[in-house]
Structures are given as structure tokens and as C-alpha cells.
Please model this.
Amino acid sequence: MRPLAGLLLFALAGAPLVAGPVPLELNLRRLDDAGYRHRTPGVVNDAAVAEISGLAASRRADERLWALNDSDNGNLLHLLATDGRRLGTWPVDGARNYDWEDLSSFVRDGEAWLLIADTGDNGGLRESIELIAVREPDPAAAPAPVPVAWRLEVRWPDGPRDCEAIAVDVAAGEILLVAKKRVPTQMFRVPLPRAGEPVPTVVAEPIATIAGIPQPTDDDLRRAPPGARYMSQVTSADLSPDGLRLVLLTYREAYLMSRTAGEPWLEALRRAPQRLRMPPLVQAEAIAFDRDGERIWIGTEKLPAPLVRFDPR
Model:
């Protein structure tokens, strides 16, 4: 999210938002803890991945993460080791990075996929956004151009909006999109295409609002402008491989929502989320479940970029 980076860095540099409790912190304490502990097994220091806005666990190899940068950083997928080393870079042939903001990995019919969210729209000006699917490259092979398998043009039902968070629900055949700046947070869905099928332009369907994400109080806004305005905005999302847990990332915290098998998100999101307490991070913009769905990874923009891992207690 490049245009707001200066504001966020300015806000995060001050003590009220990084250290010590403020009213926003007191508000967040109303949520139950999700039962994870965090650690930082790696740090990214490579200039090639200095603007991480999407992260996805490889479905073809353990301890490997795919990452992408946001706008003006090329149509590239980067493979990271969990200690932060960049292991290679794969160009996406035929795609343009207008504003790539999230990345999801999934398996369908025994084949591993990566879905790129070209969905960023800070100014609310794009008439449509684009979802770009590629078959996941072999992490053990030498980097080579990756062809686009399909692309889906998406329009919003009521005009442009910013979106930096997507997740793939394979069982339902859907892609979930979480809008960023509206309050309460809004969730939409579009069909998940299959390779080789015609892919028409679709209109995103609203399915739920997420009212449980704590918002800054009036006192927060008085004490810590302008950063407090942005701290509860959703910057990334992911769905566990079993499709039963949804994790949402904001600049301040991460939140876990759960459902039972067959339960629609419209019902599940009426319950309060659980909180994943993050360490202080500058511009947290990427989150992903591990390949087995047990652990959760977070990546950030700006170097050095810690790779934070949440393990179940």
C-alpha cells in the first residue's frame, strides 16, 4: 500500500501505537485469545522483496513460502525459505502488476495453484480488478517464466473500493474478497474458475459484514492521528486448507474466525473473532496458513521484514 506508507511509518514510529497500552489496546482486550504464541524464525533483508504484500505457503514443498510485492515492483513471484532467504524469482508471463496486494495457495483436483490478487485501489478509481491464477511452480526447479492459466475480471456491485485480502474456498468453489476501508468490514465472493473454462467478467456478491474487528475509539483518533485511522483496516487474509478457519490481518493485530463443516460464513462471522496478538510490526500486509494449516505466517513491507510464525500453544 505505497501511497499511505509514509503516514503509517510516521504513526508507527511513535510510542503510543507501538509500545504501551492506549485506548485501542484496551478495546482489543475484549476479544478472547486464539491460543497461539508467536516467534520470528526469519528476517527478509533482500531488496528484491522489499514490499511484501502477499504471502502463501507452498503446497508442493514444506518450509517454503511464496511472496509478492505490491505495485511498481514487477510481475514476479518470489520463493522464500522460512529463515527469510530468497531462493528464486519466477516471472509471471503475460501479467502486469498494477497493484498486487495478496496471494493465496490452494489445491484443486490434485493440482497446486497460486492466486494473485491484483485488487489494490487506494484511490477508489478502478472500474474493475483482476484475479490471476498460475499453476504453482516446482520450488525445487530452476526459476523460469510462469504462464497465466486464467484470469478473472471482477467488478464491485456499488462502485470501486480498495481490497487487499483474498482467500480461496475450494470446497465451495469460491474466492472470498475482504474490502479494506469500509466499516464494518465487508466480505464478498466470486466463483472460482477452472482452467480451460470460459472466464467472463463477474460482479462480486456481498455475503457478510465482519462487525467484530475492534475499531479505534474517539480517544485513539485524538491521541494518535493519522495512524489510528488505519490500524484496523484488513490488509490480508487466508483460509485454512480444511476451509474451516479464516484469518484476517490488520496493521495492529490478526483475527481468527472459525466455522463448522457446512456452516456459511454469513453465520460464522456473527460470532466474535479470536485475537492473535502480534509483536510490534511496521506495515503488516501479508498472512498465510502453513501447508498443514496448523501454523500461521505474517510478512511485512519495508526491510528488514521479519517473518513471524504463530504456533498453537
